[in-house]
Write a structure and sequence with these properties.
Elements (H helix, E strand, L loop, with lengths): L42 H8 L2 H22 L2 H18 L1 H24 L8 E3 L3 E3 L9 H29 L2 H17 L7 H9 L4 H15 L2 H17 L12 H52 L1
Antiparallel strand pairs: 1-2
Helix pairs in contact: 1-2, 3-4, 4-5, 4-6, 5-6, 5-7, 5-10, 6-10, 7-10, 8-9
Amino acid sequence: MTGPDHPDDRVHLEPQHTLPDYVSPEFHQYPATQETELVPPAPQKQWLQKLGPVGVALAFAFGKLKWLLLLLKMTKLGTLITMLLAIWAYTMLWGAPFAIGFVLLIFIHEMGHALMLRQQGIPAGAPVFIPFVGAFIAMKGRPRDAYAEALVGIGGPALGALAALVCLGIGYWTGSLIWFALASSGFFINLFNMVPVSPLDGGRITGVISRWLWLPGYLIGIAVLFVSFSPILVLILILGLVNLWNLRKNRDPAYYQVPAARRVAMGVAFFGLLALLTLGMWLADSPLKALHYKAQESGSAAHTGHEASADC
């Protein structure tokens, strides 16, 4: 979920994580002569030399580390590594099967954005995962207008909803509760991103319908905050204040000059996707709630039987 909320105020939900530019000094080797002064090694090198072969290996590893970081920045290897890190983090809480499925659902959501970015000809980086926060794609270009930005915004929830529907279908087909849990999580992730508060996806989508939808969207965000107490949502609402302030300025009206037919089409897509995600989450939660109630009834019956045997 990336892209400028306003052509003059490019506010991103996810910070632009860029690595520093490392400048490596060039070393030139000259033939040794009698006048050449021998420069003593740096204290760090002296310490590594005392370790023998291990020190040599450490020196080599440290010397190559900065090049590895630059390589991660320039290639999609960073996506794989951050995905594995996220899977490891979630495995500590929920176990490997659910963690893998959960990260893949987030990845598919981000791929929806990536596909629309490519379709619109907007350069962007590869997805980067942040455990317990989500993922982001750094957009390196500007959409031509609010409609293009809305297309990029809706691409993630649309493809994410499709992935959650697949999980839901497998759940009903196999009866496996883990698929219902994954489906419920997938619908929730995408439904949360549809809240019309910029820089969430919903804020970018509703920008082309009517930017005044950000006002009720902000109230919805506050209501969700009181329920979830999410620190990430606090950051989103703070960033959303900037966009609410820009409502009265309207610095670049040409950016929002979109034909009425496109506004209507995007409005139908937005509210239709909201309905689909809400229905899907209800269908996914129903078997999970039934299991919860069944477990409660079993526990209550066992407790009653224990009391009855104690009375005897």
